[in-house]
């Protein structure tokens, strides 16, 4: 739990940060994560060369993440301003509203038959090739991105905020961003990005499984709940990512969708393990995936509020 603060205060700060996100959305200019990405790119250009790439990657991770996290910890003191800053940092780190703003327009473009616009919008949120993608491919890409980021951009951030407040949310999101930038298994990042990938795996381990369990619990039907659980247990081990596998397989199963499979990266088709089972994704399934992510966030906010009320009730009993 957030050091020095009671759970009712933590729950109130969690709610405040999410409300700020839903009301304000992403900052339109000078978003902190964009600035951090520029910093990380600069560090990588200077360090990712020569020998000892693994050690250089570890040093790069520390230079990028630790000073910012330490600054956040120093600023978030016990004063009223420090408490408010916890909520502001959560707002800057969480991406619930941005998931809706980036994905629902894809569903709208597909529903309107505007394939070029849907391809462009999808290319903004995924790394796979979209130039020749059809409706089913675009809907699949968006649904997969929503389900995975339900953990990476939303619940994982909430989890680490509950553990360590604003600095915890900052640490998680910066580590997750570095994994997205450096965690590739190619010639450039195989060694340099390995530390970033392993740290992100460790930070995500518990949140990813809580997110996967939430998708099971919140599946719209009992059949969906059973399918989500079965897909998680049987399909997740086939994925190279120990955390994306549980999250996406349970989410696809909950929605009764067949995701995973073929995707094109840098002109080459990659055959990925299956996710879920059922029908191929359509435009309306993007909306359903967003609704599942939103309900997951509301579930855990509700649980935190309920715990806070029980604690307050016990104090006054």
TrEMBL record:
One of its GO terms (biological process) is cobalamin biosynthetic process. Pfam families: CobD_Cbib. It is a multi-pass membrane protein. Its main location: membrane. The chain crosses the membrane at residues 6-24, 54-74, 297-314. It is found in: Cell membrane. GO terms for molecular function: ABC-type vitamin B12 transporter activity; threonine-phosphate decarboxylase activity. GO terms for cellular component: plasma membrane. Keywords: Cell membrane, Cobalamin biosynthesis, Membrane, Transmembrane, Transmembrane helix. Pathway: Cofactor biosynthesis; adenosylcobalamin biosynthesis. InterPro entries: Cobalamin_biosynth_CobD/CbiB. The keyword Cell membrane applies. Belongs to the CobD/CbiB family. Converts cobyric acid to cobinamide by the addition of aminopropanol on the F carboxylic group. NCBIfam families: cobal_cbiB. This is Cobalamin biosynthesis protein CobD.
């Amino acid at each position: 739990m957030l050091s020095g603060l009671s759970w009712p205060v933590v729950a109130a700060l969690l709610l405040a940060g999410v409300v700020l996100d839903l009301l304000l959305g992403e900052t339109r200019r000078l978003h902190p994560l964009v600035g951090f990405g520029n910093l990380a790119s600069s560090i990588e250009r200077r360090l990712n060369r020569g020998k000892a790439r693994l050690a250089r990657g570890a040093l790069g991770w520390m230079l990028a993440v630790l000073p910012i996290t330490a600054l956040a910890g120093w600023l978030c003191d016990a004063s009223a301003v420090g408490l408010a800053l916890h909520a502001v940092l959560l707002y800057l780190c969480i991406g619930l509203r941005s998931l809706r703003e980036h994905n629902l327009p894809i569903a709208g473009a597909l529903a309107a038959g505007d394939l070029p616009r849907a391809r462009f919008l999808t290319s903004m949120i995924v790394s796979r090739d979209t130039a020749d993608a059809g409706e089913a491919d675009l809907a699949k890409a968006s649904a997969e991105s929503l389900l995975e980021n339900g953990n990476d951009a939303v619940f994982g951030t909430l989890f680490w905020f509950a553990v360590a407040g604003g600095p915890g949310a900052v640490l998680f999101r910066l580590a997750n961003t570095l994994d997205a930038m450096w965690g590739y298994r190619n010639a450039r990042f195989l060694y340099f990005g390995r530390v970033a990938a392993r740290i992100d795996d460790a930070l995500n381990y518990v949140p990813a499984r809580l997110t996967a369990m939430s998708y099971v619990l919140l599946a719209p039907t009992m059949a969906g709940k059973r399918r989500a659980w079965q897909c998680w247990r049987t399909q997740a081990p086939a994925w190279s990512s120990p955390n994306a596998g549980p999250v996406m397989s349970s989410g696809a199963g909950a929605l009764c969708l067949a995701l995973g499979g073929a995707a094109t990266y840098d002109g080459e088709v990659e055959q990925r393990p299956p996710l879920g089972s059922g029908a191929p994704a359509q435009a309306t399934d993007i909306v359903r995936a967003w609704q599942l992510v939103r309900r997951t966030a509301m579930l855990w906010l509700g649980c935190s509020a309920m715990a806070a009320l029980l604690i307050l009730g016990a104090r006054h009993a």
